[in-house]
Design a protein that fits this description.
Layout: H1 2-23, H2 31-36, E1 41-46, E2 52-56, H3 68-80, E3 87-92, E4 98-101, H4 110-122, E5 127-128, E6 131-134, E7 167-172, E8 178-180, H5 189-194, E9 201-206, H6 210-228, E10 231-232, E11 236-238, E12 246-252, H7 257-267, H8 270-279, H9 291-306, H10 327-336, E13 353-360, E14 363-372, E15 375-383, H11 390-400
Parallel strand pairs: 4-6, 5-10, 6-11
Antiparallel strand pairs: 1-2, 1-15, 3-4, 3-12, 7-8, 7-9, 13-14, 14-15
């Protein structure tokens, strides 16, 4: 009985080790062999000279997760160019109300808003009789597929005027006091309300919905105007700027599009990705942007530039599980993305790999460039089953070897 029990135990241990290897949970396993043993995985590796080195399920459509951001980045760069700078207009009406007119700049951080306030003060503005927010550039169609209504920063909503990616940094002191987590960002009434139930420590939360996000923008900009020496005497309102309101300042963001996309890819910022995605529905800023038209616009671009016919493009960040790309399509995208390869994230433990990760529950992806045979090969990995997260990086390093 004892021998039989030991035999069964050994068999169970062997089976368990095999399952761990197949699932990618055994870190010592050969990563390429592990991927080849996965039932729901696609892998494509193309050499620098264009020949195919490895192909496994390369044409099977799968959920790309955040590797979808590569398509959004490519579409934005091809549409506007690396040196493009988004702008925000500031107008003054006959009643002394200052109007901020949003045009979809996704990178209006506090420092950028302070530059606007300082520029207005330098132009002689010392007092306004209210602050108006013109957000008409973004229509009502702003719902992001796959976005959850949590307070996590990656679930931030879209809005036509957005401060700090529609998130706030807060610190709850041990004595119960709530303060801003950033010296450059005054604590607004909206931020205080969001932080009312937070426990001690540092927090970053999103602004939950568009109305709250735009209200926070107005409160924050009013506080920064005061900090710059411009007195704000009237209320904050939301409407279209009066037709006769004169342009007093057009602010171009200090960051170029390329300087926005590099951190978007590195930190996988959903807000920037979907902000760019929705503005691609109205790239010349002539009408009103919306998600449905953005899907059509990016689908057209993928068809015309990349020759895709069967890709499913549902959002720009990869939050939606309705997105479908194949490993072959991702490698085709990487071929087209070559002029922008310098914007790709570098794998922390291996400088031979430039690649973008993608992660959803039960989905793990990785796509990018790998140094091979004196040049840059292109690879794409799409897995639709639970695996160890380190499998992606270990596989890429193995491909480089």
């Amino acid at each position: 009985m004892i021998a039989l029990h030991s035999s069964r135990r050994r068999a169970a241990l062997v089976l368990g080790a095999a399952l761990l290897c197949l699932s990618g949970l055994a870190r010592g396993a050969d990563p390429l062999a592990t991927v080849r043993g996965l039932e729901h995985a696609s892998l494509l590796l193309v050499e620098p000279d264009g020949t195919t080195a490895i192909a496994q399920g390369a044409t099977t459509p799968r959920v790309p997760a955040s590797t979808m951001k590569l398509l959004t980045a490519y579409a934005a760069l091809e549409t506007w160019g690396r040196e493009h700078r988004f702008h925000t207009d500031v107008r003054l009406d006959d009643d002394g109300v200052l109007w901020v007119v949003g045009h979809g700049d996704p990178y209006l951080v506090s420092e950028e808003l302070m530059r606007i306030a300082t520029a207005l003060r330098a132009r002689g503005l010392t007092r306004i009789n209210g602050l108006g927010l013109d957000t008409h550039a973004l229509g009502a169609d702003t719902e992001i597929p796959g976005r959850s209504r949590t307070s996590n920063p990656y679930d931030a909503p879209l809005s036509a005027l957005a401060a700090n990616f529609n998130t706030v940094s807060l610190i709850r002191e041990a004595d119960g006091r709530l303060r801003s987590g950033e010296p450059q960002t005054p604590l607004t009434a909206t931020a205080q309300a969001l932080g009312a139930d937070l426990g001690p420590g540092r927090h970053r939360v999103n602004l939950i919905d568009r109305a709250r996000a735009e209200r926070h923008f107005g409160e924050l900009f009013a506080a920064l105007l005061e900090r710059a020496g411009v007195s704000v005497a009237g209320p904050i309102r939301q409407a279209r700027a009066p037709r006769g309101a004169r342009l007093v300042y057009r602010h171009h963001n200090s960051r170029t599009l390329a300087e926005m996309i590099a951190p978007m890819l590195e930190y996988s910022t959903n807000f920037i990705a979907n902000g760019l995605f929705i503005m691609l529905s109205d790239p010349k800023d002539k009408g009103v942007a919306g998600m449905a038209e953005a899907r059509r616009a990016v689908t057209r671009l993928a068809r015309d530039r990349l020759g895709w016919r069967d890709a499913v493009i549902d959002d720009g960040a990869g939050l939606s599980r309705a997105n479908r790309l194949s490993a072959r399509q991702l490698v085709e995208l990487l071929d087209a993305f070559t002029p922008y390869r310098d914007l790709m994230p570098r794998q922390d433990d291996d400088p031979r790999v430039l690649a973008k990760t993608g992660t959803l529950t039960g989905v793990s992806s990785y796509a990018g460039y790998v140094r091979r045979n004196g040049g840059w090969g292109r690879f794409a990995l799409l897995v639709e089953q639970p695996v160890d997260r380190s499998l992606r990086q270990r596989l890429a390093s193995a491909l480089a070897r």
